[in-house]
Amino acid sequence: MEMTNTAVTNTPTVDTLTFSDNVITKIAGIAIREVDGVLALNGGFFDDLADKFRSRVDLTKGISAEVGDKQTAIDVDLVLEYGRDAQEIFTQICERVRQRIEGMTGLSVVELNVHVSDVLTREAWRKQASDNEIARQKKLAAQATA
């Protein structure tokens, strides 16, 4: 019986896991929705007002991210509820966003910038959200008849 030597070559493999900016902004948006006192992300209204508003919320609106191989930087533009402690809300946003992104992706959040673009009472916000929904419904109705 003849024996042959077969050379086994261990070819190194390169495995990568990457995330699009949109995935990071969506995770951040969901995490920010968990923080009481944030009324909107750059016009993307959300609240307990009505579940129908929640189903239409663009979770990435008002959020941008730069994603690298091991870290990410996030910018947030939001509307704060009048009378709430902005510093405490900022702290909660930072904790939740970092926890969710680092836990889900392994990326380190090295920078998180929050810009408060407006302050509204909850009542004023509800009226604005309701007015926006009415205007949206009218626009849809007009498009349907056109």
Question: How would you describe what is shown here?
Answer:
By secondary structure, this protein is an alpha+beta fold. The protein has a single domain (21-145), classed as Cation efflux protein, cytoplasmic domain (Alpha-Beta Plaits), CATH 3.30.70.1350. 43% of the residues lie in helices and 24% in strands. It is built from 4 helices and 5 strands. Strands 1, 2, 3, 4 and 5 form a 5-stranded mixed β-sheet that branches. Helix 1 packs across helix 3. The longest helix has 24 residues, at 122-145. It is elongated, with a radius of gyration of 23 Å.
Summarize the model shown.
This is Stress response regulator gls24 homolog. The protein has four helices and five strands; from the N terminus they run H-E-E-H-E-E-H-E-H. The protein has 146 residues and is α+β, with helices and mostly antiparallel strands.
Fill in the keyword field for this structure.
single chain, Alpha-Beta Plaits, 5-stranded mixed beta sheet, 4 helices, alpha+beta, elongated, 146 residues
List the helices and strands and how they pair.
Layout: H1 21-33, E1 38-41, E2 44-45, H2 51-56, E3 63-67, E4 71-81, H3 86-105, E5 108-120, H4 122-145
Parallel strand pairs: 4-5
Antiparallel strand pairs: 1-2, 1-4, 3-4
Protein name: Stress response regulator gls24 homolog
Pfam families: Asp23
Organism: Schleiferilactobacillus perolens DSM 12744
